[in-house]
Amino acid sequence: GPERMLRTMSGLVKREEDVLFEPFTYIGKLPGKGIRPRLIAAFNEWLKVDPVIIKAVSEITQKLHNASLMIDDIEDNSRLRRGTPVAHLVFGIPQTLNTANYVYFQALSEVHALGNPEAVQVFIREMLNLHKGQGLDIYWRDSNICPSEQDYCHMVQQKTGGLFRLSVLLMQSFSTNKSDFIPLVNDLGLFYQVLDDLLNLQSDEYHTNKSYCEDLTEGKYSFPIVHAISNAKDNALANILRQRPTDNDVKRFAVELMEQTGSFAYTKSFLKSVSERLKLHIQTLGENVLLGAILGELSKVLMDGES
Length: 307
Known about the structure:
This protein is mostly helical. Helices cover 79% and strands 1% of the residues. InterPro entries: Isoprenoid_synthase_dom_sf, Polyprenyl_synt, Polyprenyl_synt_CS.
């Protein structure tokens, strides 16, 4: 009868949910860098928000992060993420895209359920910023337009800063502490992304999990590449990037060209200056042991790259 039909249907809905979530569950199982939950805990030293809110914000941020990675990997034509085939190579582009978008709206629904209009505003604003930044990044890459350093940093603050701002401002919408965290969070996003850019072209650990110098194959105008192209004597590097090189010898040659323009040294000194700014922001906002520790670790990664 109808009851059995309803039971079968609810069983079906359960299976539908599982199928729908499969690409998301897949990417969620990959070992992450795990920095986001720690950043949230660190900012809560200042914001002192209820643990229930912290848990919700952590889950929302993690969902958005993973969903955006699924879409990123499609947009970047990536093959591997953390040493494992990307979601769309396993589940196909249509399913992966649909799942990622579903998760975005699910996250919005969770923010809405917190019952704070300001939180919903934050979510919408930062998701728009995220897509603006991502759109610029893709436009430059696919039109072979090398941005200025200033334009690049602005894009990063929109894109990478987006999810950082989203978590901090979500928390702050439930806090009595109304200090201005934006300059700090923007610089955090910038530091994090430019360090990632550097490691992509330099670190061995990165290459075991990703293919060698993946940003070159993707044709991405990352921070060191922007510096190198802007300071190059000829068009060799710009042309190599345009070819989307897959050959490791070609990529090694590109890295040599970047060594010649001093782009790695320049990127490191840029990161050191951002790191000094971060320390000043923290001083202004008041002592924060947890955040200091995270920064220390990120800076250590930077120093280790030099040994």
